[in-house]
Amino acid sequence: MKTAVQSIVIFVVFFVLGCASGISKQTRSQVTFSDSFKVLQADPDKYAGETVLLGGKILETLATSDSSEITVLELSLSQQDRPVDGAKSEGRYLVRSNQFLDPAIYKKDTLLTVVGKISGKEDRKIGDFDYIYPIVEEIEIKLWPPEYRAAPRFHFGFGIGKTF
Fold it and tell me: Pfam families under this entry (predicted)?
């Protein structure tokens, strides 16, 4: 009996630890940039080669057979490395990958956390506005499922039912 209880406790501990963070410890240990996104966005070239941990919401994913680019609206991260949906954003950035990332999976409005190397910047327009996008070369990406918020369910009824 004691072994069964120990097994259950070990399973629960590993399950909770596995769900606690979106990024693996090994990848997270590579992060060298610890300043704010605003600092990074102001001069991405200054931080080229640094490894960052960023979160956000996907705005667009463009994919070819051998590479992909995700445009992300930056959002602050919770203690579990999950982007805080609805938090104030400090800007946008590009995530580039040397593999095909299916736009049906990496779809608009999906929350993500990424660890990657800063490789510079790209100037693009948002409408008529010139905008500098920091470029992050992907090392690890975590997509987050929508938060589940079940509405309370109540059922009141009287009567006799018949099953056919």
Answer: Slp (PF03843)
